[in-house]
Amino acid sequence: MQTSLNSFERRVLGSLLEKSMAQPDYYPMTEKAIVAACNQKQNRDPVMELDEDAVWETLEALRQKGLVTMLLPGAGSRSKKYKHEVEEHFGWQKRERAVMTELLLRGPQTVGELRTRCSRFVPFDDIAAVTIVLDCLASAETPMIRALPREPGRSAIRHAHLLYTDDDEDAPSISTAVTQVAATPSTPQPQPATISVANETIEQLQRELADLRSRVDSLESQFNQLMS
After folding, report:
1. Are residues 202 and 121 in the same domain?
2. What's the whole-model pTM score?
3. Is residue 170 within 8 Å of residue 7, measured between CB atoms?
4. Cα torsion 26, 29, 31, 37: sign
5. Lowest pLDDT segment from 126-130, 173-177, 217-221
């Protein structure tokens, strides 16, 4: 059965996932720490302003769904702490958690964007490594992500998670992607993830070529100065 999360639940769960990988020394987290993480302006889209009551209610909702556990205060502490349970609930491994964290915190993204942004959690050698994770999440018994239809003027395909609620205004046009897949003839077609990898690779090679040209021009200029 597909899990649905509203915008507050996605932000709280994404923040817990983020801190568990990026700042394990400060994890599990207190309610105040979760509020600060939810409202930070970096690595968030959209930026939110959640108060403690909203975060507490959201944590309770996530506890009911089995996605969060509350830890009672230990010796010398007065604050309850919280941790996520996505490994037990969804079975996500570290790379899958990294990709889902970025999708929960920022919304739909390209393979290249995910590779760059997930590097603060776990290194990906290349774009193909990210695509493998996306394929695993998309082909799971309960799919977690889907490739979106290509946007006009963009060469790269974006990928979105499938944890939105049915009436979520922030949800991308995933239904369009479903319709296109259903209408595809039985003849094997290039997979969106494969096309995305090719486009991303071409763009990366173009950037590297431009950088090499710039370096050659700089070396040529230095050489001419030395010879003059």
Report:
1. yes
2. 0.76
3. yes
4. positive
5. 173-177
